[in-house]
Amino acid sequence: MRNVQRYKTEGPNALWQVYRTVSPWKGVRNFVFIQLARYCPILPIKNAIYRRVLGMKVGKHTAFALMVMVDVFFPEKIEIGDNTIIGYNTTILAHEYLIDEYRLGGVIIGSNVLIGANTTILPGVVIGDRAVVAAGSVVHKDVAPGQFVGGNPLRELRPGKDHETP
Fold first, then answer.
1. Reported pTM
2. What are phi and psi of 150, to 5 degrees?
3. What is the pLDDT, as a whole number, of residue 163?
4. DSSP string over 30-94
5. Are 122 and 30 in contact, with CB atoms under 8 Å apart?
6. How many C-beta atoms lie closer than 10 Å to residue 142's C-beta?
7. Distance set, CA 21 to CA 30, 62, 73, 118 (Å)
8. C-alpha to C-alpha distances, 18 to 15, 73, 77, 109, 122, nearest whole angstrom
9. Consecutive 10-residue runs of the chain (166 residues): their mean pLDDT?
């Protein structure tokens, strides 16, 4: 099970009530800076936007490929270790708005992790150090360190280096 906090809502669906949980100005500000970062080809500038403007924890030498979309409402709930690659057009979410509730959960991605292109990472998951996530995956549960996973639903594709016997 993902580590998310659930908040019940009444009335129209929870997304219609989003600005009761987050300032509309924060949403607009974050959207503008996320769009700048998505298209920025200079990795140090991109990481500076994520760290200083959006409040994400981003490790040294972490690389976000073109078009990565981080959570627009709660980017500060995303933490990524050192020397990690986030592949093209990946989406990292820290929130879910449903019909009668919304959920918030941090995302922790370890160091030396490879996230393949077009991956969706849902709120409340931890991806361990040296893990590999295949392109096009939906990460809906934790990934152990060194594990190689992929698909939808997510499954282990090959035993990771941390799981091999000598």
1. 0.94
2. -175, 170
3. 53
4. HHHHHHHHHH---HHHHHHIIIIIT--EE-TT-EEPTT-EE-SS-GGGEEE-TT-EE-TT-EE-S
5. no
6. 17
7. 15, 30, 9, 28
8. 5, 9, 17, 26, 18
9. 93 93 96 98 97 98 98 98 98 97 97 98 98 98 97 90 53
